[in-house]
Amino acid sequence: MCGIVGYIGREAAAPILLDGLQRLEYRGYDSAGIAVHSEQNGLQIVKTKGRLQALVDIVSTGKPLTGTMGIGHTRWATHGEPSDENSHPHVSEDGRIAVVHNGIIENYIQIKEFLQGKGVQFRSQTDTEVIAHLLEYYYDGDILQAVASVLHIIEGSYALGIICAEESSRLIAARKDSPLILGYSEKGSFLASDVTAIIRHTRDVSYMEDGEIAVLDENGIRVFNTMLESVEKEHSFVDWEVSAAEKGGYEHFMFKEIMEQPEAIRKTAFSRIVDGRIVFEGLHLNEEFIQSLKKIHIIACGSSYHVGMVGKCNLERLLRIPVEVSLASEFRYAEPILDQDDLVIVISQSGETLDTMAAMREASRLGARTLAIVNVVGSSIAKQAHDVLYTWAGPEIAVATTKAYSTQLVLLNMLGIYFADVRGSLAPAEYDRLIRELLELPAKMEQLLEKNGDIQYYASRYFNHESVFFIGRNLDYALSLEGSLKLKEISYIHSEAYAAGELKHGTISLIVPGTLVVAVGTYGKLFDKAMSNVIEVKARGADVLALTTEDRAPEMAKYVDAVLTVPSADDLFLPNLGVVPLQLFAYYVALHRGCDIDKPRNLAKSVTVE
Ligand code: AGP
User: Which of 465, 545, 546, 540 lies closest to 509, judged by CA?
Assistant: First the structure.
């Protein structure tokens, strides 16, 4: 979703802002803009609908943007269509104050009516514009004081970057429920929605908390609470390489990230296996709680929810207690029934998904213990959960998640094995066998990634279908959900995933000669049942591309049009293998269709609105 970058220092601000915005492009956006201030030219604003390149073109052909203080923004439209007027920065009527904002001001209509009553003319349809005008209303020569006053009035979520023409030595930032990172450097001070925007300049960062206001100047950053009392910030060192957030010779981030999966799993899993035993350093859950656990709830959105669907199958098998999986956007309004003996596991790559965060807060309010599986260090969900386990997948830039999904799966399985051991529901020999299987997983994935020629061929054969059905049972159904989402989000082909046994209760009426069905049949226990469903769709003329394990491929090949295979593995780890061909299939299909793979239309990497 929207991205913010800000800079104040000794260098020209415009190139730093444009570079930062380019690195935030992956978050998803539909317009962009920057505001730069200089003593000679005052506040200069350039903003436009469309891709960042359009903004760069305007900046490079127009009057040079001078100045060493500025703010930039990529907007993902919520209130008001994507347009030049609705793009950020928004400016006060007197042109002195510029604002960039991520989030939603929920009471903007009341504020707008109040300001209109005072004669203020609005130029955009956004909720953000009220902030610029309110700041002007309260401005009395001290922008920090004006920001503090405005924060007492606005409701909702915000990450804000604010500059004022009359106070050229400071840039103000504020946050509530939308991430903001402060960067410290010899060159000056930085502000960004995420680390990728500023890592080329500094690795010395701190994460703003809700209710904090930061004052950035060229020599450093001071942070205050809303009462303007000083707050001490802990600094963090970003330890990943700049190259981790660059394409490194690959055409797309998505492909690079697919290829990085074995290594991401090694990092996430292997460092947590010590002398053949799983060790979760820093986990506060005690053995007594794990032993008395009655129920697990998994809450997430999108692909992270699909991880939860796999998790339900695997954790119930390992622990023999009920596991309920909920979409975060549904959970919080469903009057959830939770107990103190329940564990709520929330899964989120970004750690900023608003629905997931709100569901987690609700679970916590109802007395449940929360454990978050998160990829982005220092993110809001990571900070607010009672416990956090990080996936160490490295930065994931492509909107379509791949390596985060895989590492989430592995971590959830490890949690299941660990809990089962503590609860005594897993025999020691079985524990050792599963650890051995886990250790073999990255090498098996590497084998799969090496032989992707077949997948490229099938993508070229099927890319012009306009509707696809993924079918599978149990673990394979959970995997089908992810395969189907990957395909639709990047190739724009209509695709649905069905529990294979459910087809004949309605959906089979859509199967006509030539319909593409991707039949996922990796789960040995239900292979025969899956085959019956394959035969049903074949009988209606479907073109069936099957995915199964190498040992079952000959049987599957008798009935279908094409077979993709994965090496055999314990059921627990099959989805980790099965997802690889499905990711690659989606990737190559989207490539054939000429889609913008890393930045699919309408989508955002981190969904920070409801
Ligand atoms: C997956 O490819 C999607 N981009 C999306 O479904 C994503 O998984 C979802 O928005 C949840 O994001 P999170 O893991 O950051 O919470």
Answer: 540
